[in-house]
Amino acid sequence: MKISSWILAAVAALTARSAHGVQAGRRRSPTLHFLDDDQALCLDGSPGAFYLTPATEGSRSEDTWVIFFEGGGWCFTEEDCLARSRSTALNSVGSTVALGSFPNTNVRYQQSILGGPQAQVCAFNPALCEANFVYLVYCDGNSFAGGRADPLAINGSLVYFRGKRILDAALSALGAFGLDHATEVLVTGDSAGGLATILHADAVAAAVAAQSSSLRKAKALPLSGFFPLLDTVQGLPVFAGQMQQAFATHNASAGVPQACVAAVADPSYVWTCNTSPGALASVATPIFILNSAYDAWATSCIFTLDADEAACGAAPGWGLPCVGDSSPLGTVAAIFGPADLCDEAQVSALNDQWRPGFLASLEATGVLGRNGSGAFVHTCHTHTAENLPLWSTIASDGGEAMVNAVANWWAEDEPAAAKPTYFAPCTWSVAAPHQCNPTCNPLGVLGDVMRTAAA
After folding, report:
1. Structural domain boundaries enclosing 129
2. For the chain, how many structural domains are there in total?
3. CB burial class (10 A; 0-12, 13-18, 19+) of residue 9?
4. With helix as H, strand as E and coil as C, how does the chain read?
5. At residue 326, does pLDDT exceed 60?
6. Is residue 318 part of a domain?
7. pLDDT at 448 over 50
8. Does residue 304 or residue 413 have the better pLDDT?
9. pLDDT (tens digit, 9 = 90+) per residue, 71-100?
10. Is 125 contained in some domain?
């Protein structure tokens, strides 16, 4: 999902004024690296890639690494993936062809360094602002889990499904840049990259440990990456069917957590290991879920998807302005539209069907009772706000800012002894203006961001 251009421009301008090390000439410059592996290929056959920003020299974070999975939805069918493979624009999620000409102007990459765990502005990311940052470019269509050995010929084009190979090749290549002596690593990502964080947390931790004998901490932080397998408002299991289809299309059996695969009693349900609820139950790495219980993408593209899967938010009685589709206009309205744009019937459905289903699905994974792990579940009608400066202003009912909750969780060095943390969400009010958490007001939050950046 993309954010509106005016908010991106406003935040970019504000962070440039910050007194925390990102003034002109002081921002640490990223470099774009294409993978030198003829098997680590995007959907269109172009090479996988990553951006690397080195740690602040001489800082205490020189051997700390943040490995970020880019998001961008999924392609469920062969036809979906073919369409992605034929899009070679700068912000394509199926190709890296255009990146070489504009190596550091990828909009999604630029968004990721403004806030969240990759932010170089220490006011917005006090725990990790000086670390090494790796941004894994998303171009495989299934959260870096695909594993077809041979490409498929689809309507005259070859399409490659090599997501797991891209990840493995990137981790191997990063050893030469210092990952081989990492002492701390945070695995993170947003949206489909949040799912990738869940799918690959253990594999990344193991791969880094195999390279670095100094590794003492590995944790995972999925951002807007928990997608429950809930029915639509019409009672149809559409999203579950889509994820099952994606698993088959990408041949992801070897790219999903093998602990999950081993735990599935019925082989016909191995596809659930390609989903957030299925994979999360088997993750051993300490993990902290950041997510909205009213996530704008999920309420639109899971809960109110229409029966024939034609459009997000198009179920009868829905659509803009409460939840929208995934077009640019719909995205902006869905992410930043306040809750008072929903009517009473829609709020009742979200409160009575979606919210309890979301929380029950999360609780069933066991992560909320796991030492060293936990969740910060808020009620803001957003998607990937956890990867923006907004994470420094979104707070729990008790007043704990999300960024501080993450910093406290990251600072804990003995996860086996740490108590699980869970910030439970409030419930929207049926009466207008509906929103139960005042820190979710997008205009009010933006004002807070402005004041923070200008301080």
Report:
1. 5-290+383-421
2. 1
3. exposed
4. CCCCHHHHHHHHHHHHCCCCCCCCCCCCCCEEEECCCCCCECCCCCECEEEEECCCCCCCCCCEEEEEECCCCCCCCHHHHHHHHCCCCCCCCCCCCCCCCCCCCCHHHHHHCCCHHHCCCCCCCCCCCCCEEEEECCCCCCCCCCCCCCCEEECCEEECCCHHHHHHHHHHHHHHHCHHHCCEEEEEEECHHHHHHHHHHHHHHHHHHHHCCCCCEEEEEEECCCCCCCCCCCCCCHHHHHHHHHHHHHCHHHCCCHHHHHHCCCHHHHHHHHCHHHHHCCCCCCEEEEEECCCHHHHHHHHCCCCCCCCCCCCCCCCCCCCCCCCHHHHHHHHHCCHHHCCHHHHHHHHHHHHHHHHHHHHHCCHHHCCCCEEEEECCCCCCHHHCHHHHCCECCCCCEHHHHHHHHHHCCCCCCCCCEEECCCCCCCCCCCCCCHHHCHHHHHHHHHHHHHC
5. no
6. no
7. no
8. 304
9. 999 999 999 999 999 988 777 899 999 888
10. yes
109 pLDDT tier (thresholds 50, 70, 90): confident
Kindly state whether residue 340 falls inside one of the protein's structural domains: no
Residue found under tokens 């990456």 = 225
**CATH (domain of 412):** 3.40.50
Question: Given the structure tokens 């299309």, which residue do they identify?
Answer: 249
Q: What is the structure's pLDDT at 309?
A: 62
Q: Round to whole Å and give the CA distance between 326 and 243.
A: 18
Asked whether 186 and 220 are in contact (CB, 8 A), the reply is yes
31-45, 330-344, 379-393: which has the minimum mean pLDDT? 330-344
Tens digit of each residue's pLDDT (9 = 90 or more) over 381-407: 888 888 887 888 899 877 889 999 999
Chain Cα centroid distance, residue 209: 23
Question: Which pLDDT value is given to residue 454?
Answer: 43
337 pLDDT more than 70? no
Is 42 within a domain? yes
